[in-house]
Amino acid sequence: MWTDRERETRAVGSARSTAVAAASAGAFSIAIVVLQYVANHEYPFGAKTRNYDDYFAQFVPSYAMFHDLLHGHPAIDAQFTWFVGLGQPFLPGYAAYLGGPWTFLIALFPTTAVEVGIFVVTLAKVAAVAASMAGASGADRVLVGRHGSSGGTARGDPMIDDGKRAAGRRRPIGWASAWGVAVIVVALVLLKVAPPARQVPDQAPAPSTPACTGGALQVVAHQDDDLFFMTPDLLSDLRTRADQCFRTAYVTAGDAGKGPDYWRAREAGMEAAYAKAAMVENRWETSSASFGGHPVLVRSLVPRRSISLVFLRLPDGFPDGSGTALYGRQSLPKLLDGRITRISAVDGSTEYSAVGLRDELVALIDATRPTLIRTTDYVHPLGDGDHGDHHAVAYLTRDASRLAHVDHTILSYQGYPSQQRPRNVFGDDLALKREIYDTYQEIALPSEPMWRPGFLYRQYTVDVATVTAARGDARFPGASDLVGLSPASAAPAYRPGPGR
After folding, report:
1. Where are the chain's structural domains?
2. pLDDT (tens digit, 0 to 9) for every residue of the chain, 500 residues total?
3. At the fourth CATH level, which superfamily is domain 216-481?
């Protein structure tokens, strides 16, 4: 029979052993998961991503919506969401895909780091489960170690009864701790102690240097649009006109609704592709730039400084213009037709109105002073089978070119629908196009199979125009020249649309 002092001493020892076992199990399980990600070079420790299939289509959007709900985003309804399938009640979806108090930790992360938040929440869940299991089994071992098997233990033993009561208390204590975390997080959000962090540039920018002027300016929506739709024209010029200036502006991050590792890899892929096309070392430097008052990232090819890339990093809008849950369903088509009034860069660096974005491109053209502007399809309307971002960027570029203070020629290249036209890229041109695209994909999309879509074998222009420089009092094209993208806005501030 145990004395009260013996029971107290052994109960304290049991509690300490259980706590050590639980903490060790939680730390060990976290270490195993982290090491697996590191070894596989998976996000957030590498360029590989798990952001596909259900994780991409359901879990990330669900976490992003829950994050926005906690921060009071006006587009998120706690009762019903249109962002999943054909619409569904929000709370059942939350219970199915998220559930539990640990998910409240997502509120502590900025919008652009939701995937990092999911990783941390996952680690917290794994550690909590491992700790709970180790704690329960540790208590059982301590209790039965001096009494033989549990089946042979005498009923009514005070030590066993104390152990059972302690074990019974541990479970609600664990849940209470988890819900305590949730309450603290919600309180921090309400008190604005932990607002979404503003992102800093990838690296400290070098002092601004005089830009190369003249030559060719490409303005496209995504990394690889220039490789797909504007080559062999662009690649041939890069190879044969070493004395000419080349600048390409990517208006969106090309994020596909994924996190920073994904779109930064695409940027790095384009740098490698341009260096390969120019037949020089792949070495770039960052410079500070502000076109129209908005900070943008400019990367210059060091061995050939006449080549530079500009990244505006606005959200990818998806082909149908619906936008992605990770970035608040923002898209360029929505911005142009008035469904949203502003659009924010995925790195948190700035935001634009529709007119502000057009004026940014005007300032970019004026600073670059190209003799040739290449862009995507501004002739055809949305819904023709092309990506909505391709058309939106082309409309903006066309209208900006009419306001720019430089004489130039503008070329409009067809996008996805070119696949329906006969192949017209062959021989050496096709070999070069494949080589440069493969260089891009190897870095940008290393975990995906080599993809050679139909537009690699095609290049079609749909319009070419000579534009005279605006003389300081340029008239914006009249309503007769433009077609509104949507009747949803009765009097939008900016009405771009199809037309030459």
Report:
1. 4-190, 216-481
2. 567 666 666 666 677 777 888 888 888 888 988 888 888 777 777 656 565 556 655 677 677 777 777 877 644 556 666 555 445 676 676 677 677 788 888 888 875 567 788 888 888 888 888 888 876 665 555 444 444 444 444 444 554 454 445 444 444 445 555 555 555 655 554 544 333 333 333 444 444 444 566 799 999 999 999 999 999 999 999 988 888 899 999 999 999 998 898 999 999 999 999 999 999 999 999 986 878 788 899 999 999 999 999 999 999 999 999 999 889 899 999 999 999 999 999 988 899 999 999 999 999 999 999 999 999 999 999 989 999 999 999 999 999 999 999 999 999 999 999 988 999 999 999 999 999 999 998 898 776 656 667 888 999 999 999 999 986 433 333 322 333 333 333 333 444 544 54
3. LmbE-like (3.40.50.10320)
Note whether 392 and 336 are within 8 A (CB).
yes
Report the run of H or E that residue 146 belongs to, with start and end. none
Place of tokens 């071992």: 141
Handedness of CA 72, 76, 78, 79 (dihedral sign): positive
pTM above the 0.90 mark? no
